[in-house]
Amino acid sequence: MSHMPLRAVTDDAERPLRADAERNRRRILEVAAEVFARRGLSVTLDDIAREAGLGVGTVYRRFPDKEHLIDALFEARIEELVAVADAGLENPDPLAGLVHFLERGMELQATDRGLKELMHNTGLGAKRVAHARSMMAPRVLKMVARAHASGQLRGDVAGPDMPLITLMIGSIMDATREVRPDVWRRLLTIVIDGLRAQPDVATPMPVAPLAIDEVPRVMGAPKSRR
Amino acid sequence: MSHMPLRAVTDDAERPLRADAERNRRRILEVAAEVFARRGLSVTLDDIAREAGLGVGTVYRRFPDKEHLIDALFEARIEELVAVADAGLENPDPLAGLVHFLERGMELQATDRGLKELMHNTGLGAKRVAHARSMMAPRVLKMVARAHASGQLRGDVAGPDMPLITLMIGSIMDATREVRPDVWRRLLTIVIDGLRAQPDVATPMPVAPLAIDEVPRVMGAPKSRR
DNA sequence: CACGAAGCGGAGGCTTAGTCTCCGCTTGGC
DNA sequence: GCCAAGCGGAGACTAAGCCTCCGCTTCGTG
Protein backbone atom coordinates (compact mmCIF):
# COMPACT_ATOMS: atom_id res chain seq x y z
CA MET A 1 0.00 0.00 0.00
CA SER A 2 2.69 2.54 -0.90
CA HIS A 3 0.92 5.82 -1.20
CA MET A 4 3.31 7.83 -3.29
CA PRO A 5 6.34 7.53 -5.51
CA LEU A 6 8.83 7.95 -2.62
CA ARG A 7 10.25 10.70 -4.75
CA ALA A 8 13.75 10.72 -6.16
CA VAL A 9 16.39 9.84 -3.67
CA THR A 10 19.33 11.70 -2.18
CA ASP A 11 18.05 15.09 -3.25
CA ASP A 12 20.62 16.89 -1.15
CA ALA A 13 23.73 16.01 -3.09
CA GLU A 14 25.92 14.07 -0.70
CA ARG A 15 28.15 11.21 -1.62
CA PRO A 16 25.89 8.30 -2.54
CA LEU A 17 24.98 5.74 0.09
CA ARG A 18 26.33 2.28 -0.08
CA ALA A 19 23.93 -0.04 -1.89
CA ASP A 20 22.67 -1.79 1.24
CA ALA A 21 22.23 1.54 3.01
CA GLU A 22 20.23 2.98 0.16
CA ARG A 23 18.08 -0.12 0.06
CA ASN A 24 17.39 0.26 3.76
CA ARG A 25 16.64 3.94 3.41
CA ARG A 26 13.96 3.21 0.84
CA ARG A 27 12.60 0.42 2.92
CA ILE A 28 12.28 2.70 5.94
CA LEU A 29 10.41 5.30 3.92
CA GLU A 30 8.14 2.67 2.48
CA VAL A 31 7.36 0.99 5.77
CA ALA A 32 7.01 4.30 7.59
CA ALA A 33 4.45 5.51 5.07
CA GLU A 34 2.42 2.40 5.58
CA VAL A 35 2.71 2.43 9.36
CA PHE A 36 1.93 6.13 9.76
CA ALA A 37 -1.07 5.68 7.51
CA ARG A 38 -2.34 2.73 9.49
CA ARG A 39 -1.46 3.63 13.05
CA GLY A 40 -0.97 7.37 13.05
CA LEU A 41 1.93 9.59 13.92
CA SER A 42 2.28 8.32 17.45
CA VAL A 43 4.18 5.23 16.36
CA THR A 44 7.78 5.36 17.46
CA LEU A 45 10.81 5.08 15.23
CA ASP A 46 11.47 1.91 17.18
CA ASP A 47 8.13 0.58 15.93
CA ILE A 48 9.01 1.44 12.40
CA ALA A 49 12.38 -0.24 12.69
CA ARG A 50 10.75 -3.38 13.99
CA GLU A 51 8.15 -3.45 11.24
CA ALA A 52 10.87 -2.91 8.67
CA GLY A 53 12.94 -5.70 10.12
CA LEU A 54 15.82 -3.32 10.78
CA GLY A 55 17.61 -2.15 13.88
CA VAL A 56 16.63 1.11 15.55
CA GLY A 57 20.13 2.39 14.97
CA THR A 58 19.70 2.06 11.23
CA VAL A 59 16.60 4.15 11.29
CA TYR A 60 18.06 6.85 13.52
CA ARG A 61 21.22 7.03 11.45
CA ARG A 62 19.21 8.00 8.41
CA PHE A 63 16.51 10.11 10.06
CA PRO A 64 17.67 11.99 13.16
CA ASP A 65 14.12 11.98 14.53
CA LYS A 66 10.49 11.43 13.69
CA GLU A 67 10.12 15.00 12.54
CA HIS A 68 12.59 14.46 9.69
CA LEU A 69 10.94 11.27 8.60
CA ILE A 70 7.51 12.84 8.62
CA ASP A 71 8.77 15.81 6.74
CA ALA A 72 10.23 13.56 4.06
CA LEU A 73 7.02 11.59 3.75
CA PHE A 74 4.15 14.03 3.88
CA GLU A 75 5.14 16.76 1.51
CA ALA A 76 3.44 15.02 -1.38
CA ARG A 77 0.33 14.07 0.56
CA ILE A 78 -0.23 17.61 1.65
CA GLU A 79 -0.01 18.73 -1.94
CA GLU A 80 -2.78 16.29 -2.75
CA LEU A 81 -4.98 18.06 -0.26
CA VAL A 82 -4.27 21.38 -1.90
CA ALA A 83 -5.02 19.84 -5.28
CA VAL A 84 -8.40 18.72 -3.98
CA ALA A 85 -9.14 22.30 -2.96
CA ASP A 86 -8.16 23.51 -6.41
CA ALA A 87 -10.44 20.96 -7.99
CA GLY A 88 -13.29 22.18 -5.82
CA LEU A 89 -12.62 25.71 -6.95
CA GLU A 90 -12.82 24.74 -10.58
CA ASN A 91 -16.13 22.97 -10.32
CA PRO A 92 -18.71 24.94 -12.33
CA ASP A 93 -21.23 24.31 -9.57
CA PRO A 94 -19.84 26.18 -6.56
CA LEU A 95 -21.61 24.20 -3.86
CA ALA A 96 -20.84 20.92 -5.55
CA GLY A 97 -17.22 22.04 -5.58
CA LEU A 98 -17.27 22.66 -1.86
CA VAL A 99 -19.01 19.37 -1.20
CA HIS A 100 -16.53 17.43 -3.27
CA PHE A 101 -13.70 19.18 -1.55
CA LEU A 102 -15.03 18.07 1.82
CA GLU A 103 -15.74 14.53 0.69
CA ARG A 104 -12.46 14.00 -1.11
CA GLY A 105 -10.46 15.72 1.57
CA MET A 106 -11.96 13.53 4.25
CA GLU A 107 -11.41 10.44 2.15
CA LEU A 108 -7.72 11.25 1.96
CA GLN A 109 -7.65 11.55 5.72
CA ALA A 110 -9.65 8.36 6.16
CA THR A 111 -7.08 6.38 4.23
CA ASP A 112 -4.11 7.98 5.94
CA ARG A 113 -4.32 8.38 9.64
CA GLY A 114 -0.97 10.12 9.69
CA LEU A 115 -2.18 12.79 7.32
CA LYS A 116 -5.26 13.32 9.42
CA GLU A 117 -3.20 13.79 12.56
CA LEU A 118 -0.79 16.09 10.80
CA MET A 119 -3.63 18.40 9.83
CA HIS A 120 -5.41 18.28 13.16
CA ASN A 121 -3.40 17.46 16.26
CA THR A 122 -0.12 18.80 15.09
CA GLY A 123 2.92 19.96 16.69
CA LEU A 124 4.62 17.49 14.39
CA GLY A 125 5.56 18.73 10.96
CA ALA A 126 4.50 22.17 12.09
CA LYS A 127 6.36 23.91 9.30
CA ARG A 128 4.83 21.88 6.49
CA VAL A 129 1.41 22.07 8.04
CA ALA A 130 1.56 25.82 8.52
CA HIS A 131 2.43 26.09 4.86
CA ALA A 132 -0.39 23.74 3.92
CA ARG A 133 -2.85 25.79 5.87
CA SER A 134 -1.70 28.99 4.28
CA MET A 135 -2.35 27.37 0.92
CA MET A 136 -5.74 26.01 1.92
CA ALA A 137 -7.19 29.03 3.69
CA PRO A 138 -7.63 31.31 0.67
CA ARG A 139 -8.93 28.46 -1.44
CA VAL A 140 -11.51 27.50 1.13
CA LEU A 141 -12.53 31.09 1.60
CA LYS A 142 -12.99 31.43 -2.13
CA MET A 143 -15.02 28.23 -2.37
CA VAL A 144 -17.28 29.46 0.40
CA ALA A 145 -17.62 32.86 -1.22
CA ARG A 146 -18.56 31.31 -4.55
CA ALA A 147 -21.12 29.08 -2.91
CA HIS A 148 -22.59 32.04 -1.09
CA ALA A 149 -22.77 34.05 -4.30
CA SER A 150 -24.63 31.25 -6.02
CA GLY A 151 -27.16 31.25 -3.18
CA GLN A 152 -26.73 27.54 -2.55
CA LEU A 153 -24.89 27.85 0.74
CA ARG A 154 -26.67 29.05 3.85
CA GLY A 155 -25.72 32.67 4.39
CA ASP A 156 -24.45 32.39 7.92
CA VAL A 157 -21.75 29.78 7.48
CA ALA A 158 -18.25 31.16 7.22
CA GLY A 159 -14.95 29.93 5.83
CA PRO A 160 -13.51 29.21 9.26
CA ASP A 161 -16.36 26.77 9.90
CA MET A 162 -14.88 24.42 7.31
CA PRO A 163 -11.78 23.30 9.20
CA LEU A 164 -13.99 22.69 12.19
CA ILE A 165 -16.11 20.40 10.08
CA THR A 166 -13.07 18.42 9.02
CA LEU A 167 -11.99 18.27 12.64
CA MET A 168 -15.37 16.91 13.68
CA ILE A 169 -15.49 14.30 10.98
CA GLY A 170 -11.93 13.36 11.83
CA SER A 171 -13.01 12.63 15.39
CA ILE A 172 -15.62 10.23 14.04
CA MET A 173 -12.94 8.45 12.06
CA ASP A 174 -10.85 8.04 15.18
CA ALA A 175 -13.73 6.62 17.15
CA THR A 176 -15.09 4.28 14.54
CA ARG A 177 -11.99 3.15 12.73
CA GLU A 178 -11.93 -0.28 14.26
CA VAL A 179 -15.64 -0.93 14.13
CA ARG A 180 -17.09 0.68 11.03
CA PRO A 181 -14.49 2.79 9.30
CA ASP A 182 -16.97 4.33 6.89
CA VAL A 183 -19.70 5.72 9.15
CA TRP A 184 -18.11 9.15 8.99
CA ARG A 185 -19.77 9.43 5.60
CA ARG A 186 -23.18 9.52 7.26
CA LEU A 187 -22.21 12.35 9.52
CA LEU A 188 -20.63 14.29 6.71
CA THR A 189 -23.83 13.88 4.72
CA ILE A 190 -25.84 15.31 7.60
CA VAL A 191 -23.45 18.22 8.00
CA ILE A 192 -23.45 19.00 4.31
CA ASP A 193 -27.22 19.01 4.18
CA GLY A 194 -27.10 21.37 7.13
CA LEU A 195 -24.97 23.70 5.04
CA ARG A 196 -27.42 24.03 2.18
CA ALA A 197 -29.54 27.12 1.77
CA GLN A 198 -32.50 25.29 0.24
CA PRO A 199 -32.23 21.62 1.04
CA ASP A 200 -35.42 20.61 -0.72
CA VAL A 201 -34.61 17.01 -0.09
CA ALA A 202 -32.05 15.30 2.05
CA THR A 203 -29.07 13.65 0.41
CA PRO A 204 -29.47 9.89 0.75
CA MET A 205 -27.18 8.32 3.29
CA PRO A 206 -24.20 6.66 1.69
CA VAL A 207 -23.73 3.92 4.30
CA ALA A 208 -25.70 2.14 7.01
CA PRO A 209 -25.86 3.46 10.55
CA LEU A 210 -24.02 1.85 13.42
CA ALA A 211 -25.82 -1.15 14.89
CA ILE A 212 -26.94 -0.63 18.47
CA ASP A 213 -24.39 -3.04 19.80
CA GLU A 214 -21.60 -1.31 17.95
CA VAL A 215 -22.22 1.91 19.82
CA PRO A 216 -20.51 0.96 23.08
CA ARG A 217 -17.50 -0.27 21.16
CA VAL A 218 -17.23 3.07 19.45
CA MET A 219 -17.94 5.28 22.43
CA GLY A 220 -16.31 3.48 25.29
CA ALA A 221 -13.20 2.27 23.60
CA PRO A 222 -9.63 2.30 24.85
CA LYS A 223 -8.83 3.29 21.23
CA SER A 224 -5.96 0.91 20.72
CA ARG A 225 -2.84 1.84 18.89
CA ARG A 226 -2.44 -1.72 17.65
CA MET B 1 -18.04 26.75 41.15
CA SER B 2 -19.30 23.67 42.99
CA HIS B 3 -21.50 21.81 40.58
CA MET B 4 -23.55 19.66 42.85
CA PRO B 5 -24.59 19.13 46.44
CA LEU B 6 -21.68 16.78 47.25
CA ARG B 7 -24.33 14.41 48.49
CA ALA B 8 -24.56 13.16 52.04
CA VAL B 9 -21.34 11.95 53.50
CA THR B 10 -20.09 8.63 54.81
CA ASP B 11 -22.85 6.62 53.17
CA ASP B 12 -21.10 3.34 53.84
CA ALA B 13 -21.60 3.16 57.57
CA GLU B 14 -18.13 3.06 59.06
CA ARG B 15 -17.06 4.75 62.24
CA PRO B 16 -17.19 8.46 61.63
CA LEU B 17 -14.07 10.29 60.60
CA ARG B 18 -12.34 12.64 62.91
CA ALA B 19 -13.52 16.22 62.38
CA ASP B 20 -10.41 17.36 60.53
CA ALA B 21 -10.43 14.26 58.35
CA GLU B 22 -14.04 14.80 57.40
CA ARG B 23 -13.34 18.41 56.60
CA ASN B 24 -10.52 17.34 54.32
CA ARG B 25 -12.63 14.69 52.66
CA ARG B 26 -15.21 17.27 51.69
CA ARG B 27 -12.56 19.66 50.54
CA ILE B 28 -11.06 17.01 48.29
CA LEU B 29 -14.43 16.27 46.72
CA GLU B 30 -15.13 19.94 46.24
CA VAL B 31 -11.77 20.75 44.70
CA ALA B 32 -11.76 17.59 42.59
CA ALA B 33 -15.14 18.47 41.12
CA GLU B 34 -13.88 21.88 40.13
CA VAL B 35 -10.57 20.64 38.77
CA PHE B 36 -12.06 17.76 36.78
CA ALA B 37 -14.61 20.14 35.33
CA ARG B 38 -11.98 22.64 34.31
CA ARG B 39 -9.07 20.45 33.26
CA GLY B 40 -10.58 17.08 32.52
CA LEU B 41 -10.01 13.64 33.94
CA SER B 42 -6.34 13.53 33.14
CA VAL B 43 -5.40 15.59 36.16
CA THR B 44 -3.53 13.52 38.72
CA LEU B 45 -4.52 13.02 42.32
CA ASP B 46 -1.30 14.83 43.08
CA ASP B 47 -2.65 17.84 41.19
CA ILE B 48 -5.85 17.72 43.16
CA ALA B 49 -3.95 17.49 46.44
CA ARG B 50 -1.91 20.52 45.52
CA GLU B 51 -4.93 22.56 44.48
CA ALA B 52 -6.64 21.58 47.69
CA GLY B 53 -3.62 22.56 49.72
CA LEU B 54 -3.33 19.04 51.15
CA GLY B 55 -0.69 16.35 50.99
CA VAL B 56 -0.95 13.58 48.42
CA GLY B 57 -1.08 11.07 51.22
CA THR B 58 -4.25 12.62 52.55
CA VAL B 59 -5.96 12.27 49.21
CA TYR B 60 -4.84 8.69 48.65
CA ARG B 61 -5.88 7.71 52.17
CA ARG B 62 -9.47 8.68 51.41
CA PHE B 63 -9.66 7.66 47.78
CA PRO B 64 -7.47 4.68 46.85
CA ASP B 65 -7.26 5.88 43.27
CA LYS B 66 -8.71 8.26 40.72
CA GLU B 67 -11.36 5.74 39.79
CA HIS B 68 -12.91 5.90 43.27
CA LEU B 69 -12.89 9.65 43.33
CA ILE B 70 -14.48 9.88 39.92
CA ASP B 71 -17.08 7.37 40.89
CA ALA B 72 -17.99 9.36 43.99
CA LEU B 73 -18.26 12.57 42.00
CA PHE B 74 -19.98 11.78 38.77
CA GLU B 75 -22.96 9.73 39.80
CA ALA B 76 -25.11 12.83 40.12
CA ARG B 77 -23.85 14.47 36.95
CA ILE B 78 -24.67 11.40 34.93
CA GLU B 79 -28.17 11.41 36.35
CA GLU B 80 -28.51 14.96 35.06
CA LEU B 81 -27.78 13.72 31.59
CA VAL B 82 -30.46 11.09 31.90
CA ALA B 83 -32.87 13.71 33.17
CA VAL B 84 -32.19 15.78 30.08
CA ALA B 85 -33.11 12.79 27.95
CA ASP B 86 -36.34 12.37 29.90
CA ALA B 87 -37.17 16.01 29.40
CA GLY B 88 -36.65 15.60 25.68
CA LEU B 89 -38.98 12.65 25.69
CA GLU B 90 -41.72 14.64 27.36
CA ASN B 91 -41.62 17.52 24.94
CA PRO B 92 -44.91 17.60 23.03
CA ASP B 93 -42.97 18.42 19.88
CA PRO B 94 -40.83 15.34 19.23
CA LEU B 95 -38.15 17.00 17.13
CA ALA B 96 -37.93 19.94 19.50
CA GLY B 97 -37.45 17.40 22.26
CA LEU B 98 -34.58 15.78 20.44
CA VAL B 99 -33.03 19.14 19.65
CA HIS B 100 -33.25 20.29 23.24
CA PHE B 101 -31.78 17.06 24.39
CA LEU B 102 -28.78 17.58 22.15
CA GLU B 103 -28.38 21.21 23.08
CA ARG B 104 -28.76 20.76 26.81
CA GLY B 105 -26.69 17.61 26.85
CA MET B 106 -23.86 19.33 25.07
CA GLU B 107 -24.12 22.32 27.37
CA LEU B 108 -23.62 20.05 30.33
CA GLN B 109 -20.54 18.65 28.69
CA ALA B 110 -19.29 22.10 27.76
CA THR B 111 -19.35 23.20 31.37
CA ASP B 112 -17.81 20.02 32.70
CA ARG B 113 -14.88 18.71 30.81
CA GLY B 114 -14.67 15.71 33.11
CA LEU B 115 -18.22 14.70 32.30
CA LYS B 116 -17.51 15.02 28.61
CA GLU B 117 -14.46 12.80 28.87
CA LEU B 118 -16.32 10.26 30.96
CA MET B 119 -18.96 9.89 28.29
CA HIS B 120 -16.53 9.82 25.38
CA ASN B 121 -12.95 8.74 25.99
CA THR B 122 -13.60 6.44 28.85
CA GLY B 123 -11.99 3.60 30.41
CA LEU B 124 -12.39 5.62 33.60
CA GLY B 125 -15.61 5.15 35.49
CA ALA B 126 -16.45 2.37 33.07
CA LYS B 127 -19.10 0.91 35.35
CA ARG B 128 -21.03 4.12 35.88
CA VAL B 129 -20.73 5.03 32.25
CA ALA B 130 -21.93 1.67 31.05
CA HIS B 131 -24.93 2.12 33.28
CA ALA B 132 -25.47 5.65 32.01
CA ARG B 133 -25.40 4.43 28.46
CA SER B 134 -27.86 1.68 29.17
CA MET B 135 -30.20 4.33 30.54
CA MET B 136 -29.67 6.68 27.65
CA ALA B 137 -29.90 4.27 24.77
CA PRO B 138 -33.60 3.43 24.99
CA ARG B 139 -34.52 7.04 25.64
CA VAL B 140 -32.58 8.24 22.63
CA LEU B 141 -34.05 5.54 20.48
CA LYS B 142 -37.52 6.55 21.60
CA MET B 143 -36.85 10.22 20.92
CA VAL B 144 -35.67 9.38 17.45
CA ALA B 145 -38.65 7.13 16.84
CA ARG B 146 -41.08 9.83 17.94
CA ALA B 147 -39.38 12.39 15.71
CA HIS B 148 -39.55 9.99 12.79
CA ALA B 149 -43.22 9.32 13.42
CA SER B 150 -43.95 13.03 13.39
CA GLY B 151 -42.24 13.30 10.03
CA GLN B 152 -39.93 16.06 11.22
CA LEU B 153 -36.75 14.01 11.28
CA ARG B 154 -35.13 12.85 8.06
CA GLY B 155 -35.98 9.24 7.59
CA ASP B 156 -32.51 7.86 7.24
CA VAL B 157 -31.00 8.99 10.50
CA ALA B 158 -30.88 6.34 13.19
CA GLY B 159 -30.61 6.33 16.95
CA PRO B 160 -26.97 5.28 16.91
CA ASP B 161 -26.10 8.40 14.95
CA MET B 162 -26.87 10.50 18.02
CA PRO B 163 -23.92 9.52 20.19
CA LEU B 164 -21.71 10.13 17.19
CA ILE B 165 -23.08 13.63 16.98
CA THR B 166 -22.27 14.27 20.61
CA LEU B 167 -18.81 12.85 20.02
CA MET B 168 -18.26 15.18 17.11
CA ILE B 169 -19.42 18.26 18.93
CA GLY B 170 -17.30 17.23 21.88
CA SER B 171 -14.26 17.26 19.67
CA ILE B 172 -15.05 20.84 18.73
CA MET B 173 -15.21 21.75 22.39
CA ASP B 174 -11.79 20.25 22.95
CA ALA B 175 -10.28 22.13 20.08
CA THR B 176 -11.82 25.50 20.73
CA ARG B 177 -12.02 25.62 24.50
CA GLU B 178 -9.18 28.05 24.92
CA VAL B 179 -10.01 30.25 21.99
CA ARG B 180 -13.78 30.49 21.59
CA PRO B 181 -15.48 28.05 23.93
CA ASP B 182 -18.91 28.57 22.40
CA VAL B 183 -18.34 27.94 18.67
CA TRP B 184 -19.56 24.38 19.09
CA ARG B 185 -23.04 25.87 19.03
CA ARG B 186 -22.61 26.82 15.40
CA LEU B 187 -21.65 23.33 14.39
CA LEU B 188 -24.48 21.82 16.38
CA THR B 189 -26.87 24.16 14.62
CA ILE B 190 -25.60 23.00 11.26
CA VAL B 191 -25.90 19.36 12.25
CA ILE B 192 -29.39 19.79 13.62
CA ASP B 193 -30.55 21.50 10.45
CA GLY B 194 -29.04 18.58 8.58
CA LEU B 195 -31.27 16.29 10.61
CA ARG B 196 -34.55 17.94 9.64
CA ALA B 197 -36.82 16.37 7.09
CA GLN B 198 -38.11 19.68 5.72
CA PRO B 199 -35.75 22.44 6.73
CA ASP B 200 -37.67 25.22 5.04
CA VAL B 201 -35.33 27.72 6.57
CA ALA B 202 -32.04 27.42 8.35
CA THR B 203 -31.89 27.97 12.09
CA PRO B 204 -30.05 31.23 12.71
CA MET B 205 -26.53 30.80 14.04
CA PRO B 206 -26.34 31.32 17.77
CA VAL B 207 -22.78 32.67 17.86
CA ALA B 208 -20.23 34.26 15.54
CA PRO B 209 -17.82 32.15 13.49
CA LEU B 210 -14.16 31.85 14.32
CA ALA B 211 -12.08 34.73 13.04
CA ILE B 212 -9.55 33.73 10.38
CA ASP B 213 -6.63 34.25 12.73
CA GLU B 214 -8.26 32.09 15.38
CA VAL B 215 -8.24 29.09 13.08
CA PRO B 216 -4.57 28.17 13.43
CA ARG B 217 -4.84 28.46 17.18
CA VAL B 218 -7.69 26.01 17.14
CA MET B 219 -6.32 23.56 14.62
CA GLY B 220 -2.62 23.54 15.30
CA ALA B 221 -2.71 23.70 19.05
CA PRO B 222 -0.63 21.77 21.57
CA LYS B 223 -3.92 21.59 23.52
CA SER B 224 -2.57 22.50 26.92
CA ARG B 225 -3.69 20.87 30.11
CA ARG B 226 -3.07 24.11 32.00
C1' DC C 1 40.40 -11.51 -2.42
C1' DA C 2 41.53 -8.78 1.45
C1' DC C 3 40.99 -5.05 4.14
C1' DG C 4 39.36 -0.53 5.59
C1' DA C 5 35.48 2.26 5.56
C1' DA C 6 30.65 2.23 5.81
C1' DG C 7 26.90 0.43 7.80
C1' DC C 8 24.24 -2.50 11.09
C1' DG C 9 21.77 -4.13 15.37
C1' DG C 10 19.82 -3.69 19.53
C1' DA C 11 20.89 -3.61 24.57
C1' DG C 12 20.45 -0.32 27.54
C1' DG C 13 20.96 4.73 29.37
C1' DC C 14 18.30 8.72 29.88
C1' DT C 15 14.21 11.39 30.48
C1' DT C 16 9.45 12.36 31.53
C1' DA C 17 5.26 11.39 33.83
C1' DG C 18 2.29 9.32 36.58
C1' DT C 19 0.91 6.40 40.67
C1' DC C 20 1.11 5.36 45.18
C1' DT C 21 3.70 4.09 49.81
C1' DC C 22 5.84 4.90 54.04
C1' DC C 23 6.96 6.79 58.20
C1' DG C 24 8.20 10.61 61.33
C1' DC C 25 5.49 14.39 62.94
C1' DT C 26 0.95 16.75 64.32
C1' DT C 27 -3.63 17.04 66.17
C1' DG C 28 -8.29 15.95 67.84
C1' DG C 29 -10.99 14.18 71.36
C1' DC C 30 -11.72 11.28 75.36
C1' DG D 1 -2.28 14.72 78.85
C1' DC D 2 -2.16 10.92 76.09
C1' DC D 3 -2.45 8.21 72.05
C1' DA D 4 -5.04 6.76 68.07
C1' DA D 5 -6.13 8.96 64.02
C1' DG D 6 -4.60 11.67 60.68
C1' DC D 7 -1.22 14.37 57.98
C1' DG D 8 2.52 15.63 54.59
C1' DG D 9 5.39 14.93 51.00
C1' DA D 10 9.93 12.83 49.67
C1' DG D 11 10.84 9.46 46.93
C1' DA D 12 10.28 4.42 45.26
C1' DC D 13 8.40 2.23 41.46
C1' DT D 14 6.50 1.65 36.81
C1' DA D 15 5.78 2.64 32.03
C1' DA D 16 7.04 4.68 27.65
C1' DG D 17 9.38 6.90 24.55
C1' DC D 18 13.77 8.57 22.57
C1' DC D 19 18.21 7.96 21.16
C1' DT D 20 23.40 6.49 21.71
C1' DC D 21 27.16 3.56 21.48
C1' DC D 22 30.13 0.10 20.15
C1' DG D 23 31.32 -4.65 18.78
C1' DC D 24 30.18 -7.10 14.66
C1' DT D 25 29.03 -7.45 9.53
C1' DT D 26 29.09 -6.16 4.83
C1' DC D 27 30.37 -3.59 0.80
C1' DG D 28 33.22 -2.48 -2.77
C1' DT D 29 37.68 -0.91 -4.27
C1' DG D 30 42.61 -1.73 -5.23
Description:
Two copies of one chain form a homodimer. Chain A has ten helices and no strands. Chain A is mainly alpha-helical. The N terminus of chain A is likely disordered.
Keywords:
homodimer, 226 residues, mainly alpha, globular, DNA-binding
Q: Give the oligomeric state.
A: homodimer
Rounded radius of gyration of chain A (Å): 20 Å
Q: Helical proportion of chain A?
A: 55-70%
Number of extended strands of chain A:
0
Please provide a brief summary of the model:
The structure is a homodimer of 226-residue chains. Chain A has 226 residues and is an all-alpha fold. Chain A has helices at 19-39, 45-52, 56-62, 66-90, 94-111, 113-120, 126-149, 161-176, 184-195, 215-219.
SSE map:
Two copies of one chain form a homodimer.
Chain A: H1 19-39, H2 45-52, H3 56-62, H4 66-90, H5 94-111, H6 113-120, H7 126-149, H8 161-176, H9 184-195, H10 215-219
Helix pairs in contact in A: 1-2, 2-3, 4-5, 4-7, 5-6, 5-7, 5-8, 8-9
Chain A binds a DNA duplex (30 and 30 nucleotides) through residues 17-21, 24, 44-46, 49, 54-58, 60-61, 64-66.
